[in-house]
Amino acid sequence: MLRPRTGPMANVVALPPARDPVFALAPELRDERDTAMTETTEGRQRKRRRTEGLIDLFGHTYIPDQEDPEHQVIQNQFQIIRRMRGDRYVVQLFSWLDGGPTEVVVMTEAELLGPNVKLYATEENWHTASEKAHERRRYRREARRSQ
Q1: pTM of the model
Q2: Could you tell me the residue range of the domain that residue 128 belongs to?
Q3: How many C-beta neighbours within 10 Å does residue 78 have?
Q4: How far is CA 66 from CA 70, 87, 115, 137, in A?
Q5: Domain total in the chain
Q6: What is the pLDDT of residues 73-117, one digit of tens each?
């Protein structure tokens, strides 16, 4: 008889084996392919099982630029920290001033995979994308001023 899970992992929902691409691999390949190194916000690395889905990915949400509506600007920066029941995830937002954690919000999988969100596998890629986005916005502002 199955007992219900309790504790902090009680709400974690795993994909059924038929829908999980890792289980489609030959058993001898699973150990090598079902983990990835992920850099955490504290600068430490840990192994992340690919079967955890979106957990530990970093991301940005985008909104239209008020000065130039044809382009988008980053609204929030975040890391996905936990999966809840259904298609909801707990997301840690980070401050633009000091980079520290601010509030925790819940986002749906549809929001996280939608057109207004970009996800990154590493913290380094996340920071690089943010820097490039700010550079592009600055160049657009300078181009408008010079016209």
Answers
A1: 0.63
A2: 56-146
A3: 25
A4: 9, 31, 18, 12
A5: 1
A6: 999 999 999 999 999 999 999 998 998 999 999 999 999 999 999
The confidence score (pLDDT) of residue 26 equals 43
Q: Is residue 27 part of a domain?
A: no
Instruction: Report which of 99, 47, 63 is spatially closest to residue 78, judged by C-alpha positions.
Output: 99
For residue 118, what pLDDT is reported? Answer: 96
Residue 119 forms part of a structural domain: yes
Q: Is residue 48 part of a domain?
A: no
> What is the SS3 string spanning the chain?
CCCCCCCCCCCCCCCCCCCCHHHHCCHHHHHHHCEEEEECCCCCEEEEEHHHCCCCCEEEEEEECCCCCCCEEEEEEEEEEEECCCCEEEEEEECCCCCCEEEEEEEEHHHHCCCCEEEECCHHHHHHHHHHHHHHHHHHHHHHHHC
